[in-house]
Every structure is written in C-alpha cells, then in structure tokens.
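Case study B.
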Amino acid sequence: MNIPIEEVKKELEARLPDVKLRLIRDSILIENPEDLPRVALFLKESPKFLLDYLSSVTGADYLTFLESVYHFYSMATKQGPVALRVRVTKNNPRVPSLVPIYRSAELQEREAYDTFGIIFEGHPDPRRLFMWEEFQGYPLRKDYEQEDTEVLEATDIAWLEARGIEIPGEMKEKAKALQATNQRAIAQKPEKPRN
Amino acid sequence: METTEVLKNTDATQILEINFGPQHPSTHGVFRMTVQLDGEKICGLKPVFGYLHRNHEQIAENLPYAAIMPYTDRLDYVNALANNFGYALTIEKLAGFEVPERAEYIRVIMAELARIVNHITVIGFMLNDLGAFFTPLLYAFRERERILDLFEEITGSRLMNNYFRFGGVKRDLTNENLAAIQKIVSKFPAFLKEFEALLTKNEILCMRCQNIGILSGETATNAGITGPVLRASGVNYDIRKVDGYSIYNRFDFKIPLGEKGDVYDRFYVRVLEIRESLKILEQALTKIPQGEIINKKSLPLLKMPRNFKPPVGEAYGRVESPKGELGFYVVSDGTPQPWRYHVRAPSLINLTVLEEMCLGQKIADAIIILGSIDIVLGETDR
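Model:
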C-alpha cells in the first residue's frame, strides 16, 4: 500500500511548521539536515503513518553536494515507502544520526560514512565498515582517484625493501620519476565512460 | 598466602578475547568476529566486515545497466535468482517496462525454487554447526543438487544463473522442464517428511536450539531485521504479501511465524517456508499460460544493451529474498550507466543484532546463532 507523498508533506507542514520541506520526485527533501531526527521521530510515532521500519540508508554524490537518502516503511500498517533526503556540502558533510530512533541505521550509516564520507553525528560507533581504518578517501565519490595497483610508489618500495624483497630496477626508476614530479600513481580513467 | 588470596577471590575471572575467523569454518566465509569471554559466557562481540569487499556498487556504476545483471549473481551466491529478480524489478520500475504473463510465472517458479535451495542449504549448514557432522547436510545437498541440475538445464549455470532480463526472462521453459519441476515438487514433501522425522523433534536439536539467541519482535523491527529471522520473532511481514510484487498476490500461501524468536523457531520457520514455497509452485505450474517470455519493447535492448538509457529518475525496488528484504536503489541520469546504484543487503543488516542475541550465551551457541541468521559474505561485504 502506497502513501501519497503529498499527504505526508501536508501532515508534516501542519505539525512541524518550522521545518522547511521540498518535494523532489517521489521524496521529500528536508532543507535543514538538523531537522531530520524530528521528522523521523514524528513519522515513527504518528498513528497515521507509524513508519516503524527504516529500510535503507544510503548516500549519493551529486558533484556539488552530497545526499543522504532514507526509505521508510511501516511494518505495523504495512504501508510505504516514504523517502526522505537531506543534502550537505562536501566541505562540511554532517548529518544527525538516526541510530537513536532506528537501530537499523547502525551499519548502514557506517557504510555511508565509509563510502561517501558523510559524518553521522551521534552515531555510537562511527568507524569505517568495509575499509581499514588507515584508508584514505571515499571510494564512491565521483572525484575518487583509484590507485594504480601495477605501479609502485617510493614509499611502497621502501616498505618492501625493508622486508628484504627485491624490486626490479625498472619499477624503481618509475617510482623515482613519480617522486621527482611529486605525483601519485593513479590509474588512468577512460576519457569517456564506456557505453 | 598469595594463592589462598586468589582462591578466595573466585568471582573475579579474567576476560578472554578470542578471534573467530576470517578463516573459521563456522563463519560461512570470510566473516570475522572478536568475542569477549567470561569463562564460557559471551560478554561482548564485535563483528568485523570487509574481507570480501570489492566495491560492487562502484563496479556497477561504471557498467551499462544490462551488464550489471551477472554481477548481482555474485551478491548472494547461494540463490542468484532472487538477486536477479530484485534488480530486474527495480530497472523495470525505473524504465516502466511491463512483463508478459508467462514470464511472470516463470520468474515466480524460479524464485521459489531458489528459495527452497537456500533454505535447505541453511538448515543443513546450521546442523553442521551444531555438530551433526555432514550427515544431514548431505541429505539436504542431495535434494539441492536435483534443483541445481534443473537450473543448469534451464539457465545454463548451476549457481551464477544470470537468467532474468528487463521485461522478461532469458529462455523459455519447455514442457520437459515443467515436467521435471513438477516431479521435484511432488517428490519434495517425502524428503521433508524424512528430514523432519530425523530432526524436528530430535532431543539434542531441541536442547541445543530452544531458548538460545532469543530476539524479541520489537527489537527486530527497530533494527530492520527482515526475512525468516524477523518472522521467527513473530512479526508478520513478508514482502511477497505486503507489496504483492510480480504476481505473488494471485497465489494462496501462508506466512509461517515463530513464537519465541529463538534458534529453533528460525530453523522451523524455514522448514515451513519450504512447504509454502511448494504450494506456490504447485499453483504456478497448473496456471502457467502460453505466450511471450519477454516484453517486445525490451527486445532491442537484448541486442544492443549499451543503447539502453532509462529516463532520468530513481527507483527503489525490493523483493523478499530468502535472506530478507533485498533492496536496490538506482538513480539514472539518462546515460547508459547508473549514476548511483545501491544494494540494501539483508545479510549485512540482519547482523545488527548479533551481539545482542549472543550476550550471556555460551561460546558454542554463538556459532549456531550466527548460522541461524543465515548470512552470505558476498552480500554482506559487497
């Protein structure tokens, strides 16, 4: 059973008049990310919607901003989905965490942090999920640069040689050339995406 | 003097931290958890993910839509057909494709066969974890093999099926295939009867599984647990009934529910779900009509998959995979590649409550609790 998104918006505007909302396709954009927990709590407790189940939390990169998307359903009344989204800048990607309200966000917010670098404030365990702690960068952002695994850098060679592994001279020269120009070994992206 | 002091203070035990995995036979793959033990009791558990991480989402965002289908097979590799189903459904929602009647029936038949394969495998492995070393598992695998042979005949592959297409399926079922499925369906209850006679009321199984790893319905709902684990906790939520996607609303089947939410309930809910799947298969086999197996509109797409550009927009599609709710979130920007592709993996999210279920239990029970959640690492780590 579907909930008409206009109805949700109307109800939210009536009950939470200071929250600014905007319709985007079949979802509601909350203009100020700080309002997200209030809206989520209202939707969860309101007897009309009873959205007690947060199905999916994920991020998306739209070049100028990052987005966090939430899909809610109701297990009690078997309706849904209601999609909410918040937008944050890349310089300060802070979104309040929904874990205190929905525990299902726990691992999914960690995943969104891991892949997009969205910081969920108030998360009880804000660590990376799939990558190791020392990993740099956020792999699902569109400007992420993939390391070239075939080319060794000077630091890699020093690490390997300290452990008694012999490196071919050709590789060393490449690493030196890279270091001289202060470049990192980045895999070449195709000019145009394959299609 | 010192020894007597230590002996007096018998309550103070040292907390021992041990590490399960990533290469531990009971973790069903490369899953790792660090467990803190007080004697034999668990007082802390932290799962560690990422050993099978390959950034499935980024791979998909650099591929044409049709080329992602075989990658979805590798998510939950025990039942690839359910993943195909979810992805095909999402893209059909995005592009607005209709699916012909016969194709819908074929999809349901294949998805339910996959569900049987999955549940029978899970039960087998769970018993393996219990210490019933390989005997019940091989009984289960004997039956699984019959279905996998059929998959090979129909789709060309035992596990990585890659069978669904946007707007239909790849190949039609012949009358011989249908007869073979009918034969499996009619023989399966006899096997289940034998399996249950050995297991369901088995005293050792009952003692090991009952009242272990209890999960309450409220916690399960709040933590987003789905699938048989949720239903074993007594919450009536099956996406086949709720959404009625594809043609599931035409079939008459029940949703088995547990009472307590312990390991035994999770085991038995799965046995009952196999029976319900057989019911759906019976009905689908009698009702399957003749006709097209793929939408005419999407036929050119099969020849030139790279020309397929869905309209700008987004879709969230979900199916009841045997593990739980498998969701796909796809954003299209009008190019041949998706701008954003996300998989909502039930195996990952069902692990949210693993620590809570294990606290206060014995170390040997943690293994069957993990086995009863039913995870596949291809999906957990993506």
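Chain B touches chain A through 42 residues (CB under 8 Å). The remaining cases will be described in the next quarterly update.
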